User: What shape does this take?
Amino acid sequence: MASDLRAPRAKRRHNPSKSPRARHKIIHRLVTNDLIRRVSYEEYRDKVHEIYSGPQGAVLAVCSLVSLHTPMGDYLLGQRKFDLGGVSRILDIGSGAGQIATHLLKYADPSCQITCCDLSHQMLRRARARLKSERPTFVAADMTRLPFADASFDCVTCGYVLEHLPDPRAGLAEISRVLTRGGRMLLMATEDSFWGALTSRLWCCRTYNRAELFGICQNLGLAWRDELWFTQLHKFFRIGGICVSIEKI
Assistant: This one.
């Protein structure tokens, strides 16, 4: 997709009482977990930490495989839909059980430095055990307060973690800060679709409107270059969430 990627078009207005879009919003509101909007960020962050450090986090790698997120990541990086060629320093934010880091070790240049970052120490221990590699560095940190200097990385991967922020601006601003100018970012986030609502219910996260997230990124100098899909079927049914290649300008 061309570099002047435009925001998704807004749909025409309809009578709210008859619109399928209105019905979709009602269903989405009923299914989506709204804890993130009901409590303070500190309380919510503690809840997320509890979820991912507990039994649910222990089966995260299996869930990623069943949901096709793991094979999708391998496809995108292996087929260079998101090209890691020439990248020297990668930050993987929200590393979880090492799902994306597994692909980074496989497809990044051998000399590339990889840093895995996650809020949960337990998830980082699981990632270390799964990756079985001395190559990555593991850092426990909140993505809204990254412990890295400005322009420390020329590539960032952020897979399904942004939705654990009430407002994405703080996390995206930090990503922009630690990225070099011209640096690349692979961003994956839960979309405000029916499938996204189910994901929200299971993992206690919020969802994002594609056009809204596009605008926030643009305001922070993070330009969407390509919208990425696992298959055309995924694109047609809007399955897999928001997955975009981004460049810091």
Q: What stands out?
A: Residues 20-248 form a domain with the Rossmann fold fold (CATH 3.40.50.150). The two ends are 17 Å apart (CA to CA). The longest strand covers residues 179-189. Strands lie at 89-93, 113-118, 137-140, 153-159, 179-189, 222-227, 242-248.
